[in-house]
Amino acid sequence: MFEQIVDVPTKDGAMESFVCHPERGGPYPPILFLMDAPGIREELYDMARRLATVGYYVLLPNLYYRAGRDTRYGPDVLDKGSAEQARMRAVRTKMTIPPVIDDIAALIAYADQQKASKKGPVGTHGYCMSGPYSLAAAARYPDRIAAAASFYGTWLVSDAVESPHLTLAKAKGELYISCAEHDELAPPDMVKELKALFDKSGNGGELEIQPGVHHGFAFPQRWCYDKRAAERHWERLIALYRRRLG
What we know:
The protein is α/β, with parallel strands linked by helices. It is about 35% helix and about 25% strand. It has one domain (about 1-245): Rossmann fold (3-Layer(aba) Sandwich), CATH 3.40.50.1820.
């Protein structure tokens, strides 16, 4: 496995990103792996590596780069009231969709310049806060993003002008939306509304509710990790990319 940390140039500065792909047999279809709110950590690197081993060029950017390089947080980042959570939220609460969509354009441009990355369709998937980014990117770049997935994405239906639910019909690529049955950040009524809008959009993808699990179920180091649901998440994601990217 080949891996390195690179700086992807954007209009707002250098976006530190983890890159990995197989050593042999390239070039490989590019995939943009978008982080959850707790930010970049070894757990995400391991997930990127797993995806790369099946034949993809994976880019995992630090979406908090505008706040500087000191945006990696300790293991108590999810503990309510902790100093690390406060430090993370000071950055997270300033995040909006439009600048991240610009970052995704920069990532695609970077991948296009790499010999190990295959030119053509791109895949993207995001967890938690990045579920909306992944879906919005598919709508913004419909001629490049052929597959986009959201796993327990937060507030996918809102009053925001850039709310992901407003972009469903604009995506040409296949969408996959996975929701946890128990999720305060995507409550049942919201998911029900999203499902109706998704069906109306005409997209050939799928919205699936994972029974009995909680927000964060795919992360091996999270209290709510559910191995069966996590493996299903890999099954669905890799199948999506196989269909749309090869």
